[in-house]
Amino acid sequence: MFVLECNIQIGNYSFTQVKAVKVVKDINLLSDTATIELPASAMFGNKEKGFERRALETTIKVGDPVSITLGYKDILLKTVFKGFVTSIYPNQPTVKISCEDAVYLIRKKNLNKNFIGTSLQEVLQYITVGTGVKISEAIPAVNFEKFLLKNVNGAKALQKIKDTYGLTIYINDDNELYAGLKYAVSPEKEVSYDLQKNVVKHNLKFTTSENVRLRIKVVGVKKDNTKISVFVGDQDGEQRTIFRYNITDPKQLKEIGENELLQMKYTGYRGSLTGFFIPFADRGMKCKLHNTKFPERQGMYYVPKVVMSYGTSGIRIQTELGTKLL
């Protein structure tokens, strides 16, 4: 029998009974976020000193560290989120607490620096220094002739890099900041689903490559931040943009675009599925998908995003399928 269990640590306080928890982890967003819904008041204290009822909106503070552990008692428990309280919304009879991962600490920094002859690695180290966030070893070798940060917070600085250079930027579960190409880090862990066995619901659509219309814009970025662009694919297709650094030969950029097009125009599933907490799925994993009715449609996909929900109806993980790996 699967018995739900949760442990929410906020500051010095632990909560084992909540109305609802939602955790969103997405490589396309700077930060992981969580929402916790608790009773508006709770009993605080111990047997020695006694107990007293307090309103959570005045007991919990913005900036308090947060840890969320979910699972099934004596079967599987996982810490699915670590971060900080960003806001508190009192709303009788519950209080809603919004949280953000360590980007919260980076956001609090105010930055002013004009870099000359620098690298992505150096800029990221400047942005994160003093926050406890480590820099991933998988950062690509990208050089800048100049890079200006003028009176911006750390999160806006990361967003500038993300928007200007088309990089995927997020903090992984090891508290490491990754900035690079979206699928450059190969997934190590795997989750397996069968559409007829362990999937609660899904909105997946199986599409052949011939029916996928895509147009890819490949942007080559020079050291001085000037750019050159080439286009490949279908004129009437959905446009995607990819960036490459220190590559400005149009022929080479076109070859890169054609290779990306082959990966994106795959025959397979697109969409998301919802399962339980077992099997466990997380952002950055690979997902092996079975279909008993159509075994030839089996495939392996990258997981860019998960949404974890916990409440009286149980635990659910909504898993989004990204590019097809196999």
Description:
- With 326 residues, the chain is mainly β.
- The chain folds into 4 domains: 4-101, Baseplate protein-like domain - beta roll fold (Phage tail proteins - horseshoe like beta roll fold, Roll); 105-180, Baseplate protein-like domains (Phage tail protein beta-alpha-beta fold, 3-Layer(bab) Sandwich), CATH 3.55.50.10; 187-209 and 266-326, Phage tail proteins - horseshoe like beta roll fold, CATH 2.30.300; 213-264.
- It contains 5 helices and 25 strands.
- The protein has helices spanning 56-59, 103-107, 120-128, 154-165, 250-264; strands at 4-10, 13-15, 20-26, 33-39, 41-46, 50-55, 65-72, 76-91, 94-100, 110-119, 134-135, 143-153, 168-171, 176-180, 190-194, 201-202, 205-207, 214-221, 227-233, 238-245, 268-275, 286-290, 299-302, 305-311, 314-321.
- Strands 1, 2, 3, 4, 7, 8, 9, 16, 17, 21, 24 and 25 form a 12-stranded antiparallel sheet that branches. A 3-stranded mixed sheet has the order 11-14-13, covered by helices on one side.
- The longest helix has 15 residues, at 250-264.
- It is flat, with a radius of gyration of 23 Å.
- It starts with a strand and ends in a 5-residue tail after the last strand.
Quick structural gist:
This protein is mainly beta. It is built from five helices and 25 strands.
CATH-assigned fold name of the largest domain? Phage tail proteins - horseshoe like beta roll fold
CATH superfamily name of the largest domain? Answer: Baseplate protein-like domain - beta roll fold
From the helix content, strand content and strand pairing, which structural class follows? mainly beta
Q: What is the β-strand count?
A: 25
- Quickly name the level 1 CATH class of the largest domain: Mainly Beta
